[in-house]
TrEMBL record:
Residues 20-34, 56-65 have a biased composition (Low complexity). It comes from the Bacteria. Residues 1-67 are annotated as: Disordered. Gene3D superfamilies: Glycogen Phosphorylase B (3.40.50.2000). Residues 37-55 have a biased composition (Pro residues). This is Uncharacterized protein. It comes from Pseudofrankia inefficax (strain DSM 45817 / CECT 9037 / DDB 130130 / EuI1c).
């Protein structure tokens, strides 16, 4: 599998560092390539790699994750996106209501097909959900997904967004009511299911953390590595990986009609910055990267 990244072209002065739950060390700085931004890999288990503090060079992970895991999760991009939603008359609630988002790499057809099936289950139960698939999309895969959605009667509610720049990914997350991270295919997990068990096992957790940074509810599979996230970040809801699509749909219904407000999203971003997953946890009262000061 090829690598994917949530890699900003420019890091803001208030960027924070998200560290892997396993505390893996970070390696030397990679060469940034902002001209070819992509999205984090979904549907694979594990831990995100480290992001350096503001002003420091980006760091890449060591070990087998180098080939498939994004080295960047710039929280400043999410702050900018949330601030844009909070402008007078532009809360983002109207755009976000009933919008389901999936982030994926070109090879993640399994995850995309799973979310199209989830969209069908929601629509067939009377819920006016719509789905945005974000990430590079090969033409043949596009055709298969459209055929699947057409057969299920939901093609009109499917938006194939394609690859987007990192700041646009943050915006799309803030404009969604729910981020869905499907379970990996049966047999994809190796080595007992812990972090570091596959060459691509940083992607799933990185995507979950991106949703939390946007303050968007996240529906993810119940795996050892996601349980730690859910224990600390209330945005995360876990579903049994092999549960039927109807069970995923029931879990998805609750957050879809009323997406988080800008204040809710600022609170979630602050919580992530203060969590054990953020290397540069701010001192109390230091909220320069997490929204306006509260009175």
């Amino acid at each position: 599998m090829g690598g994917v990244a949530l890699n900003p072209a420019e890091r803001g002065p208030d960027a924070a560092s998200v560290v892997p739950p396993t505390g893996d060390p970070a390696g030397p700085a990679p060469t940034e390539t902002p001209q070819a931004p992509t999205v984090p890999r979904p549907s694979v288990p594990g831990a995100p790699v480290a992001v350096p503090p503001a002003g420091a060079p980006a760091q890449a992970p060591t070990g087998p994750a180098d080939s498939g895991v994004a080295p960047h999760l710039d929280l400043a991009l999410f702050g900018v996106a949330i601030a844009a939603r909070g402008r007078p008359g532009r809360t983002g609630a109207e755009e976000a209501a009933w919008t389901v988002l999936h982030l994926g790499a070109a090879e993640d057809e399994h995850g995309r097909a799973s979310v199209v099936d989830l969209l069908a289950a929601l629509r067939h139960s009377g819920q006016p959900a719509r789905l945005r698939l974000v990430g590079a999309l090969p033409q043949a895969q596009r055709g298969r997904l459209l055929e699947r959605a057409t057969a299920a009667g939901v093609v009109g509610a499917l938006d194939l967004v394609g690859a987007r720049a990192p700041h646009e990914i943050a915006r799309l997350l803030v404009e969604a009511a729910l981020l869905v991270v499907p379970a990996p295919p049966a047999g994809q997990r190796h080595g007992g299911g812990g972090a570091g068990s596959t060459p691509d096992d940083g992607g799933l957790v990185a995507v979950v953390l991106a949703g939390c940074a946007a303050g968007t509810p996240v529906l993810a599979p119940d795996l050892p590595e996601t349980r730690r996230l859910a224990a600390e970040l209330p945005e995360v809801t876990l579903v049994a990986p092999r549960a039927p699509v109807e069970a995923w749909a029931r879990a998805a219904v609750r957050p879809l009609p009323v997406p988080p407000t800008p204040d809710d999203r600022w609170t979630a971003l602050r919580r992530l910055r203060r969590s054990s997953f953020c290397r540069d946890r701010p001192a109390l009262g230091d909220e320069s990267a997490a929204g306006p000061a509260r009175g």
